[in-house]
Each structure stands twice: as C-alpha cells, then as structure tokens.
Amino acid sequence: MSASALRLEGHERRLLLLGGLAAFCVGVFMTVDAGGRWDFVLPFRARKAATVLLVGYAIAVSTVLFQTVVENRVLTPAIMGFDTLYLLLQSGLLFFLGSRTMASLDTRLLFTVEVAVMVCFSAVLHRWLFEGGRRSVHLLLLTGVVLGVLFRSLSSFLQRLIAPGEFDFLQDRFFASFNNPDPDLLLVSAVMTAGASVLGLRLLHACDVLNLGRDVAINLGVDHRRTVSRLLAVVAVLVSVSTALVGPVTFFGLLVANLAHGLVRSHRHVHVLPAAVCLAVIGLLGGQLVLERVFSFGANLRVIIEFWGGLMFISLLMRGALR
Amino acid sequence: MSTRSPDSPPLPEAAFARSESVARPAKGGPLPLLVLAGLAVLGLAGTSLLIGVSHVSWDALLAPSEHQRAVQVLVISRVPRTLALVLAGMSLSVAGLIMQMLARNRFVEPFTAGTAESASLGLLAVTLLAPGLPILARTAVAAGFAMAGTALFLLILRRIPLRSALVVPVVGLVLGAIFDAATTFFAYRFSLLQSLMAWTTGDFSSVLRGRYELLWGAFVLTVVAYVVADRFTVAGMGEAFTTNLGLSHPRIVALGLAIVAMVTAVVVATVGMIPFIGLVVPNVVSLMVGDNARRSIPWVAVLGAGFVLLCDIVGRVVRQPYEIPVGTVAGVVGSLVFLHLLLRRNDRVG
Amino acid sequence: MIEARNVSRRYGDTLVVDDVTLKLPERGVTSIIGPNGAGKSTLLSMVSRLLPLSSGTVLVDGMDVARTPGDALARRLAILRQDNAVTSRLTVRDLVTFGRYPHSKGRPTVEDRAFVEGALHHLGLEPIAHRFLDELSGGQRQRAFVAMVLCQDTHYVLLDEPLNSLDMKHAVAMMKELRRAADTLGRCVVLVLHDLNYASCYSDHVIAMRGGRVAFQGTPDELMRPDVLRDIYGMDIGIHLVEGKRIAVHYR
C-alpha cells in the first residue's frame, strides 16, 4: 500500500492533496454549525455547495482552456470582456423584450438563447483573433479590457433606460446568488456544463499540443482552426454558466489558473484542469467559510478575490509574462 | 540670457523675412476655428441651462408672472450645474493631456492610471477616520492619495519589462480595480456604499449652488498648466531632451502629478468620476493640432467642456424625466472612441 | 574646455567606462570612434550630464556638470543622443523652436524665430517645416533633431551618431554643416561616429575608445594607419590615399 503511494509522481501527489482539501472544504461547509436540524440544513446547503462547485468548475476550466487557445497566461475570458458581455446581453434582452415579456418567458429557454448568443460572440472573437494575421498580445489585452468597460457601461446605460427600480426587481430573478440559488437555473447550468465538458474532453489531448504553439500544433497535424473554435465555444458556454450564477468575477480565473500551473508544474491538461477546479472550489468555499465563520464579513468574497487577483495580475506583468 | 552671442549663425535675409510670417499661429490651430468651437460650446452650455424637469425658457425668464421662479431655478440649480460641467470637462481633459505627456503614452488618463480610484479611496479614508473635516481638507487628503496612487502606477511601469504602449493602460486599469476593491471592501463594512457610488459615477444631478465651487480650484490648476505648458511638451519628448534643454525632468513630473492629482481629487469629490474623457479629448486634439501643449491646451479645454456638456445633455434628454448619469454616458462614448483609436492605430503600435 | 577626470561608469559588475581622463579641444570637430560597446555613447552621455557618473568628475568651462544648474549648462552645451523616440506629434518647426527654450523659456522672441529659421534653412528642412515628426522618414527626423540642437546655439555641440539613417547626400551635407559651425562660428563639435572615413575627412581631432578606455588620441592622419586601427578594432584595415584624404577600406 505504502509502496504504491510512494510511486506517485510529484504532481499526482499534489493533485491528491488538492482534491482532499477541496473535499474537506465541502464537508465542513455542509456540516459546520448545523445545530442538529439536518433535514433542513442539508438540502439547503447542498444546493449552495452545488452552485459553488459548478461556478468553480466553470471558471477554472474556461480560463485554463482560454489561456491555452491564446497561448498566454495573462489573458482570461473575464479580462477579455466575456462575462461583462453576458451582463450586457441580460440588460439588452430586458430592454428590448420588456420586463413583462421577459418575466413570462421560461428561465431555461432564456438562458439557452443567451448561451447561444455567447457562442456566436466567441466565433466572432475567433475570426478576429486568428484571421488577417496574428495580432499582438498587447493589443488583444487592451482591446479586451476596454471592451469590458464598454459592455459594463452599456449595460448600466440600458439599465437606466429601463424604469429605475424595475431592474432591481428582475435582477433577483436573473442573477441567483450563492445564498439563493434558483433550482431551475442550476439544473440547466449543470446540463450545459456537462455538455460542454464532453466536447472539451475529446479535445483534451489536442490542447496539450496547442500548448506548444500554433505552428508546432499544425505541424503535428492538429486542425488548429477547428480545435480552437470549438474550444472557444466551450469557453463561451462555461462563462455564461458562471456569470449567470454569480455575476462577473474578473480576476478569479486568472488566480486559479496561474496557481494551478504553478502547483502542478505539468503541461498536461489532464493534470492542470483538475488542479484548477480544486483550487477554485477551495478558494470559493474555503474563502466563504473563513470570511463568514472567522471574520463574520458576510458577502465580501468577490471583492477580496478581485483584490488578490489584481495583485497577481500586476506581479505577472512585472515578471514579464507578456513577453 | 537670450542675448545674441558674437558667434551666432549668419542668418540669411530670407530667414528673417520668413520669421515674421511664423509669428501668427501655425498650421492646424487657426484661431478662428478655436473661437468657433468655443461658440459652439457656449451654445451647448445655453442648451444645458434650459433642460430640466422644472420648466425654464427664455420666455419664462422674461415673463413677469414666471420670472421669479425661473430665475431662482436658474441661479440655484441650472447655472451651477452648467458651470460644474464646463469646469470638470476642461480640467479633466487637460489633466489627461498632462498625464499623456508625462507617461509618454497616449492611453493614460486619470481613469486608466489608478488616479481616480485612489482619490476615492482617500475620500473613504477621510470619511471613516476624520468625518468632521471640512470639504477642502477632505479633498486635499484625496489629492494626496491620488498622487501616491499615480506615483505607484509610474513606479510599477518602470518595473515592467518590455513595456509596450498598450500594456500601460492595462496596468493602470488593473491597479484601479485593486484600489476599487479595497475601497469597496471598507465601504461595505461600514455601510458607505452609497457615498462610494457618488464618487465613482460622474453625476451632475445633485449639483447646486454651494456644492460645486471647489471646481473653480480645478480651473485655476488648468490655467497653471497652460502657463507652464512648454515644460510638459518638453517632458513629452523624453528625459534626455528635457535635461539637454536645461530642465529638471523629475521636477516637471512632480508638478504635473500634483496638478493631475488635485484636479482628479476635486472632480471626484464634487461630481464623481467621468471615465475616458481625459483620453478621448486629448487624442482627438492631438490628431488635429499636434502635441505642442501651448497650442493644444486651449483646444483640449474647449472640446473637453463640450464633450461633457454633450454627454450630460444626452443623459438628461434620453429618458426624461429620469436622468442617466454623465459618467455612464461618457463611459459608453469614451470606450467606443478608445476602441476606435486603438484598432485604427493597430498597425503602428502593435 | 571640456575636461573629464577619472570618469567611470559601471552597470552592475561591468565597467563600461573605465577611469577615463581626457581634455577635449576647445574648438573644431572632434570624433570619437571605436568598436561596439567601447563606451563611446556612455562617455558622451556622462559628459552631457544625461547619465550620472559612477565616479570621477566632468568639468565644462570649469563647471562641474553634476552640480551646475541644468539651464546654465543648457546654454553652454547641447547633446543629441542616438535613440530619439519622440512620440509627441510636434511639427518640425515646433521641435526646432524648443531648441531656443534655454534662452527664451518658451516665449520665443523675433530673434529666436530667426535662429529657428536659420537652423531649418541650414539643414534643408524648410520644405517640411510644417510637417509632423511622425509623418517623416527616419533621416528627415534625424535632421530635425540636429537642427534643434544647433538652434540651441551652444558652444559645445555633442552628437551621438548624427549620421544615423541619413542617405549619402544628407550625410555629407550634415558633416559639412557641422564643419561650417566649427570653422565660421568657432564651435566645439564632438561626434560619435562609426564610419572611419567621415572621421578622417571631417575631423580635426580623433579619440578612439576600446573596452571603456581611451586607446588613441590624435589627428586623423595619425589615426588612419593600419597598425593603429588594428590595435583598436582587432582587424586588418587597408588605408588608401584618395584625393589627399586617408580612406579606410575594410570591406574585405
């Protein structure tokens, strides 16, 4: 028994450790301070935990895949304006359909439509990224950041056009929070995530080759165009899921993906992806737990993630990650 | 010391003759056009005076029955608002221009260098630690924070290897996001999110007489910037050039930073942040009349005022009787223009 | 008189300029030559207070450059570096006018304008005086920068590779203009040059550097000898007498 454990390689041991830690976080989250009312507490917390797991998974996987596609560790879907686009989409639909139509529509149908639009956007982005010559990373980065500001401003513009107050009411309906997960939305999200994952799983080995760069990948016989456009579609679905569930979180993906790469020190996605997911779950659940139980800070988790994520981003730049 | 030394170059007659013709404003910035632009901005200001829920028109101002009420609305709310718009627009645009000269980068401005965010962090700190301070002292503290934040930004820039023109604003925006996260954290903890909103989103709807006058200070700073305009132009040519011409580069940077920080702090404290105006206006002016600050500052000031007035008017008209804050409108327009500048320059910057 | 006393400059552990002591002639054209990395540009930057010295002193007319107020020095000494990445959108005339800044502090007088026009004229920039720098070719921009430095009207004019990106015609015109400044105006022009033949044909005095030290000082005729050049560059260079000037042939 101990002999086989010793034969585990370094990254496998670290992966096991991360998985254990993540499971521990889930366990503590489910049971701490339950006060004996298991019949009530367990299902409620299970839904909460499921949301967190789904979101962590979506953010981690989408970021790692996106970084593979653009061959850079600084760019993430969130930094490129993906999740603010989802925000804009919400506001746009609300504005053009009107709140009454919107309210009468099935949440699941709406969500499906939105995801479809997001996938279309990823196709547009793909064309812009890879056709008409390679663009500089710097230009990509700045364009993405400014697009993010544009989408954010546009959606708050549209929100102001809708009668004030009305939006706040609807916001609850469309942005489930960790504390109030909408079961319907959760189910659709899970289904979508599963679908995207199946598609992504088949591309996993191609991803490893993409890591070597576009030219090498083509030389090794990978259909670069097709692989990349499919990967971007997967990313679009996952970003929609995570944004729909908790709203935009700009730097969390960056944090998780870079930590995963640093911890696992393997180029293989089979190792990096699970590590990133575990880290995301640990970060979200563990962070929430520590904040709530130790500091009793309430719902400040997102702000703290933005703070540390931003610091990591700048330190990455200072270490020359854009070279 | 401009005495002509005995060994000055033998100047051809033709050169003297031509030098007369140079004395008038050079190409690109003819005075009549600037005056025309100024008049257009005055027109916008006039329009701005007449828009609002309470009915004010030239007729009403002249009619004896309505006269008193109309004048009151005008004096207490409309005139201050219009003045505030003009002053904030001018000073923020010129602040953006100065930053672009100092950082030698077209894409920096108070919003893309962490200046505005550190100013609002400063305001929050004062509100929490010394709530009794008068507005002037609070703004001074905010200016101190803004200056420290911007200096940090410049420091980080120096540490980033292979600095590309395009990475500079990204660093600033992210640094701003970090400051913003810190501010939001404390604002949330101490239930000050409402005040934070006021600082982060430029909004002139609550400007009344007695609440905007600090902006005149920003205007004075803008005038100072115009007086020393040549220094900024020289600094924009780089450190070696500046030293060669006998000026101290660090001192110009310090002066510029002080002006930018104070202007930003004043604007954030009185009306809130208006994103991208300091970027859009100077870039457009640069394309029109170039970067000689002596020539471009008047243009930047006039067009900056016009831009903010226009954004405010749009925000007020689009959804009457509600208002869309000028910061939101400027965010949309500004980022669109920014993207255009970015992708148009693509082949040159890359 | 420009005088360097025991001047050194180190970057980390490497000594780029190693204990250089030298006096530059008061008048005329002095060229500094030497292989890449010999410390030529670094020396020039230190003499003109663009770069702080690691040790030693530089005196310009007896004034210590490290302690003299920048504007006083700017009326005595002008420097143009090699890489002039000016990103500002300035017209050529704007740029040259800034050469008068040390004298007029940004309020150019009619007299200043005359200097500007003179400099534009001498460097053949009149046809493009109204154009923006970013619309010009590398050679045109280089001439505009030199015009600005000449417009500064200083006794000492220090130029780091002023022939960069100039075609033959403009390179010759530039050297003639600098020669003229030295001859008719009695200026002290110091150049870093890469082309030995320009140094040979246009300078009164040559300083050769190698490995951060001064390897040779003298007249062009003393320099342009195969044994001297082999010492400096570590390669064989043939010298031919063409039209009374010593010309180096180093292509083979």
Q: Give the strand tally of chain C.
A: 12
How many domain regions of chain B? 1
Contiguous runs where pLDDT drops below 50 for at least 5 residues of chain C: none
Helix content of chain C: 25-40%
SSE arrangement of chain B, N to C: HHHHHHHHHHHHHHHH
**Beta strand % of chain B:** under 5%
What is the average of the pLDDT values of chain C?
Answer: 90
What is the percentage of strand-forming residues of chain C? 25-35%
Helix/strand class of chain C: alpha/beta
**Which pair of chains forms the biggest interface, and how many residues does each contribute?**
B-C, 48 and 61 residues
Cα distance, first to last residue of chain C? 40 Å
SSE order of chain C, as H and E? EEEHEEHEHHHHEHEHEEHHEE
Identify the overall geometry of chain B: globular
The beta-strand count of chain B equals 0
Spatial order of the strands in the main sheet of chain C? 6-7-8-3-9-10
At CATH level 2, the architecture of chain B is Orthogonal Bundle
Give the number of helices of chain B: 16
Q: What is the CATH C level class of chain B, in words?
A: Mainly Alpha
Termini Cα gap of chain B? 44 Å
Organism (chain C): Corallococcus interemptor
Subcellular location (chain C): Cell membrane
GO cellular component, one term (chain C): plasma membrane
Membrane topology (chain C): Peripheral membrane protein
